[in-house]
Structure formats: structure tokens, C-alpha cells
Amino acid sequence: MWFRRRLKLSGPNGATADGAGTDFVRYLEGILPATAATAAIRARLRRLKALPPAERDKGLPALYLLIERAVAGAGDDAAQARAALRRTVAKRFAPLLRLPDFALILAPVRRQEVLLCRRLIAGVIEHALALPETADDDFLRALATWIEAVPDAAPPPPFDFGYVPPTRDSEWVALFFRLARELYQDLKTKLGEASARSFFERSYNGVSAQYASLETFPVVVNLLPETLLDSEKIGKLSRSQIQKVLLRKVAELNDFNGQLRLQYDEIDRVRRELVAARDELERRVAERTAELRAANRQLLNEIAERQKAEEELRAAKDAADIANRAKSEFLANMSHELRTPLNAIIGFADIMRKGIRGPLSNPDYQAYVEDIHASGEHLLSIINEILDMAKVEAGKIELHETETDVSAALEAAIRLVRPRAEESGIEIRVADTPDLPLLYADDRLLRQIFLNLLSNAVKFTSAGGTATVEIEVEASGGLAVRIRDTGIGIAPEDLPKALAPFGQVDSALSRKQGGTGLGLPLAKCFTELHGGELALESEIGVGTTATVRFPASRVLRPGEVDPRQNQGQNRGNIVAFAKTAPR
User: Fold this and answer.
1) Which helix (H) or strand (E) segment is 482 a member of?
2) Mean pLDDT value of segment 375-390
């Protein structure tokens, strides 16, 4: 064939790309068929020869492709002729392969597709980076560096969509297809659809101007987003190129159809599972509904019974509340009624025992008067406790708070208890605690708390025993007062009873000593009115420790003023007694 004879035309192997370019032009003139159709190409060759080497090399690849098409079209087998020509050029003009354009043109088909894809994407990135708003886009710059390195190297890409380093050219092409679509979406999001279309169009036009005549050029067409593929671009392709584009689209449709088929099969499988699950659920719902109806009937019966019981309890509670109020009012009224004559008895007995109106003639009368006075004082203290308890239960206790010296309140209580302690042979010890802070409290109720606790300690301690008083500022900032005795003690299960109003622990000594059982409950109540707590620790035969704790908010350091200075802030507080309390 004629083109085979022409390809064997002798010509030197150039040592450099420039030298090879000059010889290559002469070579092309020798193989170009002398026909009217190639006259324009010959004219371009003559003009190309007159250009400087740099400009000549720039226009040489496109002109070579025109000559290659003319040479291949003149023979019987165009594909065979094109392949033979490229082998001859690559062999005789090897330095041309150093030029990127010729390296692409003379590359194997698969590698040629990879390089064309890279050219298109690199052009898109170059146009995008030319804009001022993308000058600092790290992703585009990193992507440009990555595109420049591949496929000869495979550095880590600046994107992440399941990237696996390709090992074959076909895998590189598939990767570039995905990358082109991701890049288009990225540019569309950042710069708008018009800019993204413009970058792809301009890059496509640049690649098309150089390589549109390559049989592998359809890979560039397929790389474009679907919105950019129009009839104008298709119309410029050769028949074989159009066939490749269509085959690629058909393959994509087949892949898409295959994915749809798989999705349909999966949806159908899920549908069947859902139908089975629905039937099973309906069966279980029917069973559960029957169970719930039966349970509902039973529950309605139970609710009716409970409502009836609640009504009965409410009626009983209302009756108990009425009775409790009547009791409290009765106790308060009776206490007032008893105090008036009792004060008269105590007053007149005191006059008689002191002999203010003259001495008693009979010594027995003096003893009787002493007994009358002591009994009256004892009865008055019991009435006062009952009256205080009635006030507590009615919520009428008021706090008159001042800056109170705890040591002074304790000393006052000890003075009242000491005569009885000495009479019973009991020693009262007070631990030395210097620099105690003041307490913001009701002084009268504070003294009553200490008096009740000390009275209990002395009352239930045998001769030779001790009652020890300790005061400390705790780590939390609160103040604790402990009164520890060596008395008979209380069993743990009896502690709640001892703290309940009128509760008395059954023992020989408690029966001997008597009392109303209100001392500890009142102490607990008065402590809680101050926001504190009363705790009991006791052991039979060892003794009892009563600890009164006041919160840090009531402890005043020297020079400190309580921020709440609001007299009567706890006025009318109601203290609800549990059915438990100390002795």
C-alpha cells in the first residue's frame, strides 16, 4: 500500500525535540498525499516551517492529526494505517515524545483516554483558579497539584468518595468520571451553575481544538456533565466517535438499569418482609387487644374499688383533721384556763414559803407549801409544753431572730439544770471551744432546745454519770451542738418513738421519772424551724448523744451581718411531726 511505502521514507533520528521537529515537518511533507484535498494542509505545513521552533512545536500536534487523518483516509484500512504511522513516528522521532501533546497523541489507546481526561479536568481547575474569589481555595489548589502528578504517581487525593488507588488505565478513567461530576457540583455550589458550566465549556473547547480528531476523543465528551452535552458537540464528531459516545451512554444506561433492577429486587424483598411483618403485627395486636380489654375491665373494677377506698380514707382523714384541730384548740384553751389559777397557786405558795406575810407556825405547813410550790412549777412546765405543741401543730410558732450567743444560751440552760444534776450526783461537763461565732436565731427557742436536751440527759442518767456538752463549727460551715450522756440509752428501734409527740420509751427508769414525752419532739421542731436538724445516736447501757445542727446560712462570723435580716421570716411555719421522735 502507498502509505506503507511513504512511512519507510528515510529521515534522521533527532537528538532533541527541536531538531526532531524540523525533520518531522520534512517527514510529514513526504508522506502527505498530493491531492486537491490536501492542498490546504500543505499550505499550513509551509507556513509552519517558517515559524520559530517554539511556535512551530505548538501548532505541530494539531497539524499532525490532520495529516494522520488524510493519510489514514487514503488507504483501505484507516485504523491500520493510523497505527502504523504512529509506530513509525514514535520510533524515528522519539524526542517528540518529550512534548506533552505528542506524548498524548502517540500513547496507547487506554493511556490516551487517561491523559485526555486529565487535560479536561486540569483545564477546568485552571479556569476556576483564575477568578479572584477562588484564589485562596485550598481544595482546588490541592486538586490541581494532584492532577498534575497522576497517573505516573498516585499521591493521596484531596477528596474522599471511596478512593482506591487505580492500577489500570480503565480504573483511572472511571475515577476521572466520578471526579468530574464531583468537581462540577463543588463549583456549582461555590460559584453558581453559570460559572461551573463556563469552566467546563472552555476547557472542553481547548481540548477539542487540539484532539477532536482522535478516535479516543469521545472519552472527553462522556466526561462532560449531562447538562453540557448538546447536539452541537455531537455534530462535530465523526461517525465512529459518535458510535463510541452512544456505546458509552448505552453502557451507562445498562449500568443504571442494573442498579434499578437490584434496587427493585431489594424493594420487593423488603415489601414481602413488610407484608409478613404486618400480618404478624396484626395477629399480635389482635391478641394484645383482647388481653388489654380483659385487663381494662379488671383495672376499671380495681379503680372503682380504690376510688371507694379513697373516699373512705378522705372522709376518715377529714374527720381526723377535724378531731386534731379540736384537740389542739382544746389543749390551747385548757392550757390557758389552767395557767390562770395555777399561777395564783404558785404565787401564793411562794409568798407563804418565803414568809412575806409572816412565818408559818407549824413546820409541817412549811413542808406542805414547798411541795405545793414545786408541784405547781412542774405542772406549769407541763402545761407550757402542751401549749407549745398545740401552737406548733396549729402553725402559730413565730421566730424572733437576733444575733444570738450560743455559749450564753447553753450557760442559761445549764444553770437551770445544774441543781437537779447535783442533787442526782451527775456531773455536767462543757468542752472549751474558744472564738465561737454568733448564730442568727430565736434566743428563747434556742434556750428551750438546750434546756430540753440537758433535762433529758440528766433525767435518764444514773448517779455518778456525766452529761457532756460540745460545740464545733463543721467543715460545711454549719454549727453543731452535741449533748452526750452516760444514761440508760435507747434501743435503735425505739428512736422514732422517742421523737414522736407524747412518745415515751417503756423502761423502768422512764416510768419512774415520768414526763409528757414532749421534750425531744419540741426540741426537734424548734431546730427544724431554724432550718437545722436534730439527730440521735444511742446504745442501751452506754448512753445517748443528741446532735443539733444549724445550717451555715445562720452562722455569723465576727463583723458579719446576716443578709436575710428579715425578722419573722419563718413566721407561721408549720412543722409536721413524723410518727417518730427521741425520749
Assistant:
1) strand 479-485
2) 71
